[in-house]
Amino acid sequence: MQTTLHPTPARVFMNPTPMTPPLRLALQKSGRLSEASVRLIEACGIRFSRANHRLRALTDNFPLELLYLRDDDIPGYVADGVADAGIVGENVVAEKRKPVATLERLGFARCRLSIALPRSDAYEGLGDLHGRHIATSYPNLLSDFLAEHDIEASIHEISGSVEIAPSIGLADAVCDLVSSGSTLLSNGLKEVETIFRSEALLIAHPGLAPDRTAILDALRFRIRSVLQAQSFKYILLNAPNDALDRVTEILPGMKSPTVMPLAEEGWSSVHSVVNENDFWEVIESLRAAGAQGILVVPIEKMIL
Ligand code: PRT
Ligand code: ZN
């Protein structure tokens, strides 16, 4: 990794005033959010030493200080102003109910909070949750769900290893985070209701001072450029000129596709961007329209 202390001027963020302290951004110290959070900040062109991955790290070329915390503490620290902003799961933000502003949805650490029962228990609907003892680390989200659906069940709050609660007789249902579902499966449980869907969020202290907001806005601009780029691909193809109308209709691009003549008479090269979500349909339509030699490449940043 580069450890340049004097970054090239073109990459230096212009601090609103030289006296403005860096923006304090809280990241999870170690866990499922950590690596993706650090990679996002790096993808924003912000350099810092990963070796200093203890409690805090200053960045080289952007006025940012990273604070490494437990994810559960991040909404509270951001609400109290100890950190100006943070990256944390939506599940934690919703559970902790701290007054923080959600600024960006970051698209990683996707999971769901679900109620699960022992596999052998019959389940036909919400009525089968009445009278259950449900173990969870998310009592607030669970009690909201139970109240909303008029379910009388008791909540047993535990801080970890929720999935083993039924097998040790602590509860007869669980409400826990699920991503692949394999943890539930291997503990003899089946998912019966999803009560919340989550992904990582960028949150901030509400009412930040203008100098901090300026830094945060610059960071958000970079984050959005990185996220946009991740959801698009750059596409290059060759098409016979008589297919160009159809090809450009399929590929609207950011404004409109770039079309350039090829050395071979009657053919053109078309360049554009394609949304990841429509990718395969677009490719099939392009092939059907006569496109050939289709190349697809990742985009590093995308400024709209
Ligand atoms: O130490 P610290 O308190 O910071 O971390 P933590 O242990 O509380 O959290 P961590 O690192 O496990 O998760 C951080 C965040 O990642 C969560 O708050 C969610 O926003 C997100 N996330 C995404 C998940 C999962 N997917 C996930 N699968 N968090 C936890 N899990 C666990 C789940 O609790 C269960 O034990 O993974 C297991 C289920 O996974 P599958 O794939 O078997 O279904
Ligand atoms: Zn935690």
Write up this protein.
The chain has helices at 34-43, 74-80, 90-96, 139-148, 182-186, 210-230, 244-250, 279-289, and strands spanning 23-28, 56-58, 64-69, 85-89, 101-105, 111-118, 133-136, 154-157, 173-178, 189-198, 200-204, 232-240, 258-261, 267-275, 292-298. The protein is α/β, with parallel strands linked by helices and 304 residues long. The protein has 3 domains: 2-109 and 199-229, Periplasmic binding protein-like II (D-Maltodextrin-Binding Protein, domain 2, 3-Layer(aba) Sandwich), CATH 3.40.190; 111-198, 3-Layer(aba) Sandwich (D-Maltodextrin-Binding Protein, domain 2); 232-298, Alpha-Beta Plaits (2-Layer Sandwich). The strands form 3 sheets. A 6-stranded mixed β-sheet has the order 2-3-1-4-11-5, with helices on both faces. Strands 8-7-9-6-10 form a 5-stranded mixed β-sheet. Strands 13-14-12-15 form a 4-stranded antiparallel β-sheet. The longest helix is centred in the last third of the chain and has 21 residues, at 210-230. It is flat. The model is unreliable at 1-11 (pLDDT under 50). It binds phosphoribosyl ATP (PRT) and zinc ion. The site of phosphoribosyl ATP has 21 residues, from helix 3, strand 9 and helix 5.
